[in-house]
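Entry for the shared binder. Reason: the reviewer on the internal report wants the predicted structure included alongside the sequence.
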Amino acid sequence: MMKSLSLQFKLNLIITLLLLGLLLTWAVSVVKNAREDVLAEVQSTSNLVMHLLDAEIAHYMTDFGWLQHTQQEGVQIFRLDELKNIRHLKVDFYDNNGRLRESNRSTRMAHSGEDPPKWFVKLLDISSVLNEPKRKNIILNGRFIGELVITPDPSFELREIWDDTSGLLAIVSLFGLSVLLFVYWTVRATFKPVKQIIHGLNQIERGEYQSRLPGFEQVELSEISDKFNSMASTLEQSIRNNHRLTQQIIHLQEEERKKLARDLHDEIGQYLTAVHVDASALVAAKKLSSARESAQAIAQITRQMMVTIQDILSRLRPRVLDELGLSLALAELIHHWRDRNRGIMVVNQISNHLSQPDEALSVTVYRILQECLTNISKHAAATRVTIEVKETDNGLYLMVEDDGRGFDPQSQTRGYGLAGMQERVEGLMGRMHIHTAPGQGTRIEIHFQMTEAFQEAAV
């Protein structure tokens, strides 16, 4: 059940229970101390009164003059009314006939404060001091004079304790309520940004990638806000790049289809027309020499058609990967590129013992190197190019470096080439790093992790 509760409610509940626990502990301590104080006060007062009365009785045992007045009405023997300030005991003297002759409570003593509630008295559990009163028989010269009865009376002490406790309880309750309100307000203010964070995440989930969080005063939440905004910016830029890349891919596909259609129409169509013309001439030829010339023309056109078709197929799928393997296919790609760019020196550091990775990785490496070389010939104006391809303990490493004009890597005008390379690399869980600056050349490093198929081929 606690899992379904909010963190804000849990914190408020824990702090409330903690305060209630402290209040309960304080109440138990107050009750315990109050009970001990009442017992000690009544016991000490009782002992004091007993000593005073014993001293009074010892005095009367040496002076018997007062005995003749003991039977007179209204005559005080022990002068108990002088003990009226002793609040915790009721002292009564009864004569031999059982009549009350003296008492320190001869008149009802006024007291201030309200009587404590019964539950408070029951909670103190002072029943042990309210047992049978102490009785002391007064006997002089073998004659029973009367009886002193001492009865504990903690009511005054209970009223004082209740007055103090109720006042302190009100103060503590007010303080606890203030603390709870302060904690509630603080926790609520602290967790208020959480709703904003959740709202921002919901916006991201709905595809509103322009959503941003404000800066928060709390350090931890401020870091979350910064990371969220950075994530949203990266995601927004990535989505924008993907849309742009998708449009460029569609555009390039259409361009490639147009080019293929143009090649088929302009070259293959012309070849077929020529074949048709020569074939017709061959059919209509009346001389063997004429037929032979037409047949030779058809053979020559057929060879040219085969070369053209191979060029078209190589653009669609590099067959050299299947025929020669990755190392030789890359070497052949570099060789043909060098023939077309004789003013650029090429340093070839491709390992001759590359294992044959899976088809997707081989095609990706081939296409990336092809794109890099195309970009260098079009944009770099370089004089030197270094190419390195090798196997590492973790997979395959590809590096292409030139000493050309370079570019600004933060520029938003990067074309399809680099974006397409990035997509290809990330599609195979690889990492691509571009090191470049205007006028300082370009270095592209790509790391591909070792796949199961690559590992099996390397064994």
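Summary line for the report: The longest helix spans residues 219-284.
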